[in-house]
Amino acid sequence: MRPPADPARINVQSTIDVNYWCQTFNCTETRLRNAVLAVGPLAADVQAYLNR
């Protein structure tokens, strides 16, 4: 698994990023995309959102 170009941000336009973050957060692509829409692209914010 290739890490994203920017490990602090989630680029939902990049298949590599989406696959990486779905595996990292153990979530579906839909859940990841909804989290990014809700809180923005910062990985820390998305992780907090998914963990609540």
Summary of the model, kept short:
With 52 residues, this protein is mainly α.
Describe the sheet with the most strands. none
How far apart the termini lie comes to: 26 Å
Structural class: mainly alpha
**What share of residues are in beta strands?**
under 5%
How many strand elements? 0
The rough form would be described as globular
Overall mean pLDDT = 96
Total count of helical runs of at least 4 residues? 3
Order of helices and strands: HHH
Radius of gyration (Å)? 9 Å
Q: Which ranges are low-confidence, i.e. pLDDT below 50, for 5 or more consecutive residues?
A: none
Explain this structure to me?
- This protein is mainly α and 52 residues long.
- 60% of the residues lie in helices and 0% in strands.
- α2 packs across α3 (43-51).
- It starts with 14 loop residues before the first helix and ends with a helix.
- The model has no long low-confidence stretch (mean pLDDT 96).
Could you give the topology of this structure?
Layout: H1 15-25, H2 29-39, H3 43-51
Helix pairs in contact: 2-3
